Amino acid sequence: MFIQMAERLLDSVGGFFVMLLLARFYFQYLRVSLQNPLGGFVLALTDWFILPLRRVMPRWGRVDFASLLAAGVVHALCLVLLGLMSGASFSVFSWPALLMLSALDLLRSSVHLLVFALLLQAVLSWTQPFSSMATVLNALVGPLLRPIQRVIPLIGNIDLSPLVLLVLLQLLLIPLAHIRLLIAMSF
User: Fold this and answer.
1) In whole angstroms, how far apart are CA 71 and each of 100, 114, 137?
2) Which of 17, 76, 94, 185 could make an S-S bridge to 102, C-beta 3.0–4.6 Å?
3) What span, in angstroms and rounded, lies between the C-alpha atoms of 176 and 179?
């Protein structure tokens, strides 16, 4: 029982921190202003980890390798700790499989982050379309919505592109889950 509680706590805290690191990566890649409550929150919780890494891994253009690498390392560490908690020995781990699993999970987490941002953006578009949070979310999901909006016009003044993108993201998660299972089986 206590091991399950510790596993759940590690998975929750580690997953939340990985999401924050990924959000930081995407904010910087998409040049989203961090001068808003969400940006300040992400910076406040990740600066202590990212700023020392930046001395070794500077940004390259819009790509913040420090945030991306940190997300991968934290996730891989969580996978190892979860494996050790469930009784696996440290020598049992297949390190290439662990790296592939971590990279695939970062991709899956990115899709989940986009789904969350898309749902939140849709709700805010009905309630507070001009809030600072809506601006951040529009910057995150806008590059993915624009190509869909070119193909699917407004129907009765309603934009169905978020719904189409949501379905596409959900469909993307299916093969990613199968690939993850194949890699985990070799792990």
Assistant:
1) 14, 16, 21
2) 76
3) 5
Question: Please, what sign has the CA dihedral across residues 126, 128, 134, 135?
Answer: positive
Tell me what pLDDT residue 92 has: 60
What DSSP state is assigned to residue 155?
B
Residue 76: what are its φ and ψ, rounded to 5°? Answer: -60, -40
Cβ-contact 17, 51 below 8 angstroms = no
Cα separation, 30 vs 149, in Å, equals: 19
Mean pLDDT of the chain: 90
Instruction: Record the tokens describing residue 142, joined without a space.
Output: 């806008």
Which residues are within 8 A (CB) of 21 and not within 5 positions of it... i.e. 6 or more apart? 46, 49, 50, 67, 68, 70, 71, 74
pLDDT at residue number 104: 95
pTM, rounded to two decimals: 0.90
Residue 161 pLDDT > 90 = yes
4-10 long-range contacts, CB within 8 A, separation 24+:
6/85, 7/82, 7/85, 7/86, 10/78, 10/81, 10/82, 10/85
Instruction: Let me know the angle formed at the C-alpha of 11 by 84 and 95, rounded to the nearest 5 degrees.
Output: 45
Question: Rounded distance, CA 95 to CA 104, Å?
Answer: 14
The CA distances from residue 78 to 2, 85, 105, in Å, are 17, 10, 11
